[in-house]
Amino acid sequence: MADKNYSFFGAVEKSFNKAAEFTKWERGILEQIKICNAVYQIRFPIKRDDGSIEVIEAYRVQHSHHKTPCKGGIRFAAEVNQDEVMALAALMTYKCAIVNVPFGGGKGGIKINPKKYSAYELEKITRRYTAELIKKNFIGPGTDVPAPDYGTGEREMAWILDTYSAMHPGEIDAAGCVTGKPVTQGGVRGRREATGLGVFFGLKEVCHMKDIMEKRGLTTGVEGKRVAVQGLGNVGYNTAKFFSEGGAKIIGLAEYEGAIWSEKGLDVEAVFQHRKKTGSILNFPGAHNFDKSSDMLEMECDILIPAALENVINGENAPRVKAKIIGEAANGPLTPEADEVFIKKGILVVPDMYLNAGGVTVSYFEWLKNLSHVRYGRLEKRFTENLNSHILGQLEELSGKKVKEGEREFIMHGPDEVDLVYSGLEETMSSATHEIMDAWKSNPKIPDMRTAAYVVAINKVGTSYAELGIFP
Ligand code: NAD
Question: Which residue, by CA, sits nearest to atom 5 of ligand 1?
């Protein structure tokens, strides 16, 4: 991020190479998995509100075509550059493979600080960017499907959909050209909080692994864990909220203007509202202030969750980090140098490319919904409720006893869309966690969970290329 010499794509390649040693693929296949298949650099002008013309720098990268469409978010940030977008696209390929989402990796980025533009200017930039993607066939339900990322959300996704639909009149599957849309525009319930919920489900699964926890002097389960989160945006806020609801204690929260700490635990919603009202996370009643936000990363806690940007824990500050588990909710928050430090210190790093896969998993559900043109649960909800009611009635008649009211409601309830999305996500995160842990345990030479996750991903993408054959 701040370090000009740091190559994020280089870091991804380094982790890839480390893991490739533990696979049996020939060099050519590994090379093909690793490289970016297509990189689209875009420059276009927009007229600012004051009448001046500004040239905008933007990218879309399709890392892998072993499966289509390509999938990955669009980031609006002043630091966006080609290296970063390539790295994020590569992570998407591995992420999709790990959670069995049948997409290739992609990513987009526009080099702007969205806070410095009006809503009208942002709409013009988003729509023009979409038009540029359409020109080169870099967007479409079957080719490349963007989603939200740092600095973007439902509003931007709705603009993308509207631009795409306007330029593809009559295309019946147009809604599948982008995910993370508002529910009224074909979005799926549960997508907004999906990445944070996935981070929670993934770490919960890890917290229930007795051997892993005992090794770090921790009890099993999420309950009572002391958790610190960096970044109170979409991913960080939802992660903190789900941990809190799961019985953990959120003791630290950091934003770019500073961080706060309270051993008694912080009320995440109250902190969020305090920041909204005062414009700063600092001076939250009863909490200690850190004027330098990154100092919070070095505090003693059970689980540290960086959920802002890449390269925040590196060779310089890693030796001072005291957390027992680090959950990478952001993409690339740790550098390979930090990984080496944590391997030596026995700190468990739960890697980004699987831990934050909740977003793409639920995006996959949204895309399927768009292609099937029907809301999840619409067909089976009433049928399930009728059936449950009948079973319950029979059981009560046979046993001569009545089920308690709260239980009755729970048993009778037929699935709503959000129930199906949450359960699909939990199942996905749980099986991915076990698959990675099994790969790690199967080879004692694999040094860390990140390498194990890469091994799983490389094997899946490698199998895909090997079975497809290489187009002559
Ligand atoms: P966001 O824009 O909603 O939130 C990011 C937050 O981080 C903002 O509130 C920002 O002020 C804060 N921040 C920036 N620099 C900081 C710093 N130095 N210290 C503390 N806080 C800082 O973005 P997001 O969608 O939550 O994405 C966060 C990370 O998660 C990114 O790495 C992104 O690639 C990754 N991610 C996002 C999704 C998704 O569905 N949105 C999915 C997978 C991964």
Answer: 233
**Residue 441 near residue 455 (C-beta atoms within 8 A):** no
Asked if residue 331 has its Cβ within 6 Å of ligand 1, the reply is yes
| pLDDT in the model for residue 472 | 67
Q: How many CB atoms lie within 10 A of CB 375?
A: 16
Strands 38-47 and 53-62: antiparallel
Is the shortest distance between the CB of 238 and ligand 1 below 6 Å?
A: no
| Residue 266 burial (10 A CB sphere; 0-12, 13-18, 19+) | buried
Two tokens, residue 390:
């009948």
pLDDT in tens, 393-443: 999 999 999 999 999 999 999 999 999 999 999 999 999 999 999 999 999
Residue 107 bears catalytic tag: yes
d(CA 153, CA 76) in angstroms, rounded, equals: 10
Question: Is the minimum distance from the CB of 328 to ligand 1 under 6 angstroms?
Answer: no
Q: Which of 85, 234, 238, 428 to mutate to test the pocket of ligand 1 (most atoms within 8 A of CB)?
A: 234
Burial status of residue 297 (CB atoms within 10 A of its CB: 0-12, 13-18, 19 or more):
buried
The amino acid at 372 = S
Residue 5: what pLDDT?
Answer: 80
What domains are there in the chain, each with its CATH number?
A: 38-184 (3.40.50.10860), 188-380+415-472 (3.40.50.720)
Cβ atoms of residues 159 and 131 within 8 Å? no
- Terminal-residue alpha carbon distance, the chain: 39
pLDDT score recorded for residue 1: 47
Q: Which positions of the chain have pLDDT values less than 70?
A: 1-4, 471-472
Q: Name which of 365, 345, 340 is nearest 103 in CA terms.
A: 365
Catalytic residue chosen out of the listed positions 34, 95, 107, 241: 107
Torsion of CA 81, 82, 87, 90, to 10 degrees: 140
CA-CA distance, 300 to 316, in Å (whole number)?
17
Show the CA angle centred on residue 182, arms to residues 151 and 414, nearest 5°. Answer: 130
pLDDT at position 367 is: 98
